[in-house]
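Q: Sequence in, structure out?
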Amino acid sequence: MGEQVGFTGPLWEWGARDSWYFVTLDDEAAEVVRERPRPPRGFGSVRVRATVGSTTWTTSIFPSAGAGDEDGSYVLPVKKAVRASEGIEEGDPVTVRLELLD
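A: Exactly. Output:
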């Protein structure tokens, strides 16, 4: 099993694309991700297994926009099926558990 981190953040919609929703990792969770050695992947992505409530799925987290420096955070995409099954909407606090797979 990979290293796990947990955090809570608000669900937000990406302005450039309708219906794309994300949660931004808090500073502590982002630091764990940054410090863990892993093979390079496209766009700086990191493969994860995410759990919100009773829903678990495999996806990738991505460096947040403008995170070209080492202190940037990451964003977790939250697909429609997860939002629907967990009853979460834009602005709601979302508690996430991530297992780092890379």
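The helical segments are 27-35, 80-86.
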